[in-house]
# Entry
Amino acid sequence: MRKIALILAMLLIPCVSFAGLLGSSSSTTPVSKEYKQQLMGSPVYIQIFKEERTLDLYVKMGEQYQLLDSYKICKYSGGLGPKQRQGDFKSPEGFYSVQRNQLKPDSRYYKAINIGFPNAYDRAHGYEGKYLMIHGDCVSIGCYAMTNQ
# Structure
């Protein structure tokens, strides 16, 4: 519950998805809860690895993004490869910007972030779909599901 709440709170500013801005040496040192609280509202970058089932959360510190924490993805659907059409039950792959209005704290799937699929790249390739989220409740029909912890 606290992990998803932290992700939601940190997404108050749109996420920036420029991999070149990521720090070259990712910190694996645990970050205290107090320090995480101080970072609330900072720009973040989320990187999801489907096969490894991990969501890495980076936070902007100075001019670079540093790894803040990694979270396990409980479930995603459709296997590897991009989502291409509505109803294929695949979880999307790509770079997505999240705005404040895409945060869904009252979602029936615990708490949710609409990732903004399809983006311009997806639309240019004819990919379609809607309501694709990162959320709790460990259920997926195209979303990235986390636990409610």
Remarks:
- The first strand starts at residue 44 and ends at 49.
